[in-house]
Design a protein that fits this description.
Elements: H1 7-12, H2 21-27, H3 34-39
């Protein structure tokens, strides 16, 4: 318990299940469109998306 709340629920609850729309647009190749820039929060100065592959491939 953490302050009366279950620890993992307290720590993991704010995490997203799905990336934000602007990250999904970048991952699908929609880079540089005004749509992704308009949905990106002002506080985001830039985005780096790295796709990791399996070593066995």
């Amino acid at each position: 318990m953490h302050g009366g709340v279950h620890y993992f629920e307290h720590v993991l609850n704010p995490l997203r299940n799905v990336p934000p729309d602007y990250v999904l647009e970048i991952m699908h190749g929609d880079v540089g469109t005004s749509a992704s820039q308009s949905t990106m929060p002002r506080e985001v100065a830039g985005v780096v998306v790295v796709e990791l592959s399996d070593e066995d491939e």
